[in-house]
Amino acid sequence: MHPCSQELVTQSQLLREVDALSALICNIRRRANDLVPVATLPIEVFLAISTLVAEAERPWPPRGEAIPGSEEDDEDADDHSDRRKPATLGWIRLTHVSSRWRRRLLAYPVIWGRDVGLLPAALSVMLERAGSSAPISVTFRDKSVDRPHLAMSTTIESGRLRSICWEAEELPLVAGMLSGKTLPILETLRIQPIYTCDRYGTFQSAMSKLHAPRLRRLEYFGFFVPFVAPALTYIEIHHMHETDLVTELGSISFSTFMGILSAAPLLEELWLTGFEGGWSSPVPYNPSDDAQPLELRHLRFLELEIRGPTWQLNCALKHLAVPYNAYFSLFNDKIERDEDFELLSTVSKGFCHGASPEEFRIEWDILSVGAVRGQQRGQDVGGASLGCFALDGLARRLPSLGIDKLLEGITTFTLLPQSEDPSATHWLPLFHCFPNVTTFVLGYSHPREDFRRGRYDPPSNEPRIGYQRVLEALAASARVAFPQLHHLRFARDVRPAWVPLSTIHSCLERRSTTNAPLLQILDLPSYLDPSASSDRSSNLHRARLDFSALAKRIIWRQPEDVDVALSEARLRVFKPAGTPICINF
Length: 585
Prior knowledge:
With 585 residues, this protein is an alpha/beta fold. Among the domains are: 148-197 and 206-285; 307-410, no CATH class; 421-585, no CATH class. The protein contains 17 helices and 21 strands. It has a 17-stranded mixed beta sheet. It has a two-stranded parallel ribbon with strand order 4-6. It has a two-stranded parallel sheet with strand order 9-11.
């Protein structure tokens, strides 16, 4: 044999031996990994761990959320939306721990049935690994999902669907999954189209009822399929303004409204928002006076944003029986006619019938009474927020609404007036309706969701006429406003330029000449703004405004947005003679 041929045979044999040894090493490593304690966990413990990891480790990017700093509404902005980034499921890393874990996970259909559709390219694989009986949760939240993938999800057996989250196109497909179907184990349903849906015309006009006996959470956005779901605890139906679906979605009938309430005896939260068409029923909902009220024992929150007159809603609310600590929120057209104000009486009696509410708030033209929104849980008092009120009409009608007992129990009055309110003749008669107020707060100390509705006034150093008119009402001499007042507080968002210290001093000095009691606490915003010129500060110093006869205790409050905290020595320069001061930074 030629020497070269012998060398080739030897090399080939060596390579075969290397492959054999490598396979042996892999086999030994696999056996060693299988003997590691964590890999020998009982199957029940392993499956419990896998399920907990899948529940605790959220997919990235998170569903339904945008990456911080994204500008989804700006087409020219850099696209950082999570909807355009590939999703990942962290629990899949468990298959890399050992071959035993991989075999176990591949044989565990329940975990593969979670979030089917979140990885569209792997949809068929995940459905295959989910087996033929495990519950399926369908999740689409990407506008780039292909129609074949969406269509594939509609072939899933109805009896296996546990959750549907459809934030994608092709609404007729998901409508076909729901209309007239019975989904016995469905627990969560969320439908939110990404694009506007006018392209689908009136495909929803002939929808049949969805039957879901175990459905607990339902969210419709610009989409509606009638439903029968007695186990519902959360309902959110929102008609997006920019869509043009069938006419019925732009309005809501009272039969639909009351039908939703009566069909969900376990309901805890109901949101009906964005219905610009108002109430569509030409015949008012008018149950007989002796009809039994609809009892909603578990209701905690009811928000309505439905344009139109309030008298129909007022009639319906009179026939609801809700818990004493429920919260009601209404955003409506202007409430200004005399009959519209009856709604306040109905809401006060229906949602504030537990412990007497102690706080009354007016923020711009929104009225709130009782518990603060989002903080009513666990309290003994309910609450309500209604807008938009005509404040002059409110002052005129409030004494005749039959809620004197409720008004007499109010001890804290918070007022955030509009920036420009030159007349404000309604403040004094309105204040007279609250004889037992002891604390009056001017301004609001917490950010509100309504800022996103365009009601927020950006910070500025311009005088606010509305604030000054309120102080003038407090100083009226004909009939004292708030005769029990002992604490006057300016909230931390009130800037010194909005209400000059000289105006506060002048109004309180005039109030002191009436029979009003001496204030126990006067809580002021910082009257020394670091941005103010030295001339302004020196003029204030020369003015020597003396509050000693106007309040027993004064708090000078430094705004949170001022980085340079004033020292006690600098404050002492402007301390009114003989007045005790509590310095708050």
